[in-house]
Design goal:
heterotrimer, A alpha/beta (393), B alpha/beta (190), C little secondary structure (100), A: 393 residues, alpha/beta, Rossmann fold, 14 helices, 16 strands, globular, B: 190 residues, Pyruvate-ferredoxin Oxidoreductase, domain 3, 6-stranded mixed beta sheet
């Protein structure tokens, strides 16, 4: 039975974690993710979970401890934002290459500098090539649902990779909104017990983790790791299907909103997708054929599926909440355009950088993007493909 | 979306504008509404101007932007009338609620020609009389509920008592003070 | 269950590697002929040996087997020829080119 509530995104993720009752949670606070371990620490103090909660002295240590715990055979996780994620950098690669299915509750925040505490995706976009699965949420409900599904995906025998559950700092993490929660028992049953085949604390069979790989092995090791990533999409869909059965909420690799006959589309990640849906509804009332693709699974990137979804679109704007400093756009832009190229897509594509450092995105801003796409179609060319939205010129 | 009510709160860091916005979201949720309550975050500086927002609707709320054209504005600290453009985008069919000891006649000239309704409440007086300390957000919460008509007073008071009883379970005296402040504020707002 | 480490030679293809390169099982280094790395080997002169066993614990590669309180012949499969045993022997019962 679903339970209606109103919670901030951080509370929602903390409650999902209480319901999951992981084995080990090392944590170091950083805005805006601090509330997740803060709420969780109260669950520990109240005896609502039997998790080993370890306050450590840095994010380098929180991720290291989560990795150690996972290798030992425990279901582990940590939470962080921005510079905290940057400080975990080397460990991110270690977690992934050791095929450890731990979780990271990431609350997206801009990386310094200039120093800023508000939302953009520069932190997680920097980690996009680290070998982690990355999932993003539009609102508190999706952050909760993704967290509940996280371990089922990362611990799957065909996957065994760490997973990053991302939500937008402050915009969803600190906004109180309606939400439907599952019963504790339902979550417990859905997530199940973690029983790894090999683990460090197994006295029957000692194990070496992270052995040195010389040139003779390194490349084969990376290819072997990539194989786990290849299985992720199918597992995500299977887990989502099962989750829909208990929650009534359907998820895919991405959401298509009013795309059925769309001639103009926006591709984006995160909370601004909700704002874009309002813009689309307004424009649809005027008869404009506009739609949205909202990425849920960003790593691995569902390239062929997105190209297929954009097959009949005449113009597309890809929205990046992070700079790439490539002089031609951001990371999502590069991914989508390469997907279109491989699929020999015909859509005229532009890439917008938007929402950096918490810059607000209004319905009117997104209407402006669709207007720009209209112009692109009329002119028959994308023009400058590397654009900024909401910038004071 | 015609049933959507958007409210913008202007306060100073430490006055509880954010808490008031969250409490309003809370109580509106209890009456079956879809809600959003969120602050505009920056560095936390006591006394610096801050903004918080509410969206309250009968249907799902998807927009995640700040609010630029609110139906209602609440000014928690009247000194903000000079420092901040509090009526920016405020719809003239809506209203502004200001915490002040002054009269409407004295306040209106400071509203940059705002043509909509103006409500005032002396939250300092209410707060001191009922709680013995200055917490402007409790009286303002009651006042904005009355101004917006989001719910009837009886429902509001019942839900708030339940909320306070949960929040201050170990401090019953705080519950009574807050409830008295709400009841007095409902009568004092003009 | 310990894995068969001998299948992980340098000719192994990527599919045959273990997930995350983990090695499950103890004592798997025995399966590698690291003795092949050495250029010189120690020589055991049994006649001079008093079975004091001082050479045994100093060997970094555990290449001096002990049975019934007596050391036996060197395990050349794993001896890398470091010469520490030569230095440890008070009786000159181990010799090695270049080590005194």
């Amino acid at each position: 039975m679903a339970k209606r509530d109103r919670l901030s995104g951080n509370e929602a993720v903390a409650i999902a974690l209480r319901q999951i009752n992981p084995d080990v949670f090392p944590a170091f606070p950083i805005t805006p993710s601090t509330e997740i371990p803060q709420y969780f620490a109260s669950f520990v103090a109240n005896g609502q979970v039997d998790t080993e909660f370890i306050p450590v002295e840095s994010e380098h240590s929180s991720m290291s401890a989560a990795i150690g715990a996972s290798a030992a055979g425990a279901r582990s996780l940590t939470a962080t934002s921005s510079c905290g994620l940057a400080y975990m950098w080397e460990e991110l690669y270690i977690a992934a290459s050791n095929r450890l299915p731990l979780a990271l509750a990431l609350v997206n925040r801009a990386l310094s500098g200039p120093i800023n505490i508000n939302c953009d995706h520069s932190d997680s976009m920097g980690a996009r090539d680290s070998g982690w699965i990355q999932m993003y949420a539009e609102n508190n409900q999706e952050a909760y649902d993704n967290m509940v599904q996280a371990y089922r995906i990362s611990e799957h025998k065909d996957v065994r990779l760490p997973i990053m559950i991302c939500q937008d700092g402050f915009i969803t993490s600190h906004a109180v909104e309606n939400i439907e929660l599952l019963e504790d028992e339902e979550v417990k049953k859905f997530v199940g017990e973690y029983s790894p085949e090999n683990y460090l604390l197994n006295p029957e069979c000692p194990m070496a983790v992270g052995p040195y790989s010389i040139t003779d092995y390194y490349m084969e090791a990376k290819r072997n790791q990539a194989e786990g990533m290849k299985h992720v999409s199918q597992v995500v869909l299977d887990v989502a299907k099962e989750y829909a059965g208990i929650s009534g909420r359907a998820y895919g690799l991405f959401e298509e909103y009013r795309m059925e006959d769309a001639e103009r589309a926006v591709v984006m990640i995160g909370s601004a997708a909700g704002t874009t849906k309002d813009a689309i509804d307004r424009l649809r009332e005027k008869g404009e054929k506009v739609g949205l693709i909202k990425i849920r699974l960003y790593r691995p990137f569902p390239a062929s599926e997105i190209a297929e979804a954009l097959k009949n679109v005449k113009a597309v704007a890809i929205m990046d909440r992070a700079e790439g400093y490539t002089n031609h756009g951001g990371p999502l832009g590069a991914d989508v355009m390469s997907a279109l190229y491989r699929a020999r897509g015909n859509a005229l594509a532009v890439n917008y950088i938007y929402g950096l450092g918490g810059r607000d995105v209004r319905v009117e801003d997104m209407e402006g993007v669709f207007e720009a796409l209209k112009q692109i179609i009329e002119e028959g060319g994308a023009g400058e493909a590397y654009r900024y939205l909401g910038l004071r010129e | 979306m015609s049933n959507l009510t958007e409210i913008r709160w202007h306060g100073r860091g430490g006055q509880g504008a954010k808490t008031a916005a969250l409490l309003l979201a809370d109580v509106a949720f209890q009456t079956g509404k879809y809600v959003q309550g969120f602050p505009e975050y920056g560095p936390e500086r006591m006394g610096a101007p801050i903004t918080a927002y509410n969206r309250i609707s009968d249907t799902v709320i998807r927009a995640h932007s700040n609010i630029y054209d609110p139906e209602y504005v609440v000014v928690v600290d009247e000194s903000l009338l000079e420092a901040v453009d509090v009526t920016a985008g405020l719809k003239k069919e809506g209203a502004i609620l200001i915490n002040t000891a002054r009269s409407k006649e004295e306040i209106i000239p400071h509203l940059k020609g705002y043509e909509g309704k103006v409500y005032i409440i002396d939250a300092h007086k209410v707060s001191m009389a009922t709680m013995g300390k200055y917490f402007p957000n409790t009286p303002l919460l009651a006042a904005i509920v009355k101004v917006t008509g989001l719910m009837d007073e009886e429902t509001f008071l019942r839900e708030m008592r339940a909320s306070f009883s949960h929040k201050f379970a170990s401090k019953p005296e705080v519950i009574d003070g807050n409830m008295a402040a709400l009841e007095m504020a409902l009568k004092e707002v003009r | 269950m310990a894995m068969d480490i001998t299948k992980l030679g340098v000719k192994v293809n990527w599919k045959a590697l273990t997930e995350g390169m983990i090695i499950a099982g103890a004592g798997t280094s025995k399966d590698f002929n690291t003795g092949e790395w050495s250029t010189d080997k120690p020589e055991f002169i049994e006649d001079k040996c008093k079975q004091c066993l001082l050479c045994v614990p100093v060997c970094p590669d555990s290449c001096i087997p002990v049975k019934d309180m007596k050391r036996g012949a060197f395990d050349y499969e794993h001896c890398k020829g470091c010469g520490i045993c030569v230095k440890a022997c008070p009786f000159g019962a181990i010799t090695m080119e270049g080590v005194k």
